[in-house]
Specification:
Blueprint lengths: L2 H6 L4 H10 L9 H4 L2 H10 L15 H10 L9 H4 L2 H8 L17 H10 L9 H4 L2 H10 L9 H4 L2 H8 L1
Helix pairs in contact: 2-4, 4-5, 7-8, 8-10
Length: 171
């Protein structure tokens, strides 16, 4: 699809809808009105979850839209509204396969054992963005260190002195 043709038809709903069904990221060239049109954005996301970047602010606050994007591009949780970055279901869906999302999660979710456990199980060093309380949790620290030994640098001082934790570094 020719980008110049897409730009020339930026406010033509049928044209843009067809375009984003073929290449989701063409949403970037749609009018603001069409970037705020749920039908158009859903079509783009079904083709490419990364196109969430070009959705309107209003739709980045729509849980259904953000969850659709996360299905194929879990890192796109970074584009979610602050309200959805504090939504446990949204963050859980993302951190299951992309632990780095913990960085974008609300402070409350950075202190949620389930969320942090999921995040560090696939990205150990992300423990550095967990709450201080959870960086002092032996189970979570163990999971993180088993995934990536560098995580040791981000756990509590108390756990750094723990013999069981030190043994994990030798494995």
């Amino acid at each position: 699809m020719d980008i110049e043709e897409v730009k020339a038809n930026f406010d033509n709903k049928e044209f843009i809808l067809n375009a984003v069904k073929q290449q989701g990221k063409l949403l970037e060239f749609a009018s603001n009105e069409l970037q705020d049109e749920k039908e158009v954005v859903k079509a783009a996301l079904e083709q490419d979850g990364e196109s969430l970047e070009f959705a309107s602010t209003r739709l980045k606050d729509d849980k259904e839209i953000v969850l659709l994007a996360i299905q194929s591009a879990p890192w796109t949780a970074c584009y979610a509204s602050d309200k959805l970055k504090a939504d446990k279901e949204v963050i859980r869906e993302s951190v299951k396969t992309y632990g780095q999302t913990l960085y974008f999660a609300s402070e409350e979710l950075r202190d949620d054992e389930e969320i942090v456990r999921l995040a560090v199980s696939n990205k150990g060093i992300i423990i550095k963005f967990a709450s201080l309380r959870l960086r002092d949790n032996a189970e979570i620290a163990s999971i993180a260190i088993k995934q990536n030994k560098i995580a040791y640098h981000y756990i509590s001082q108390r756990l750094k002195n723990d013999e069981e934790i030190k043994k994990l570094l030798e494995m």
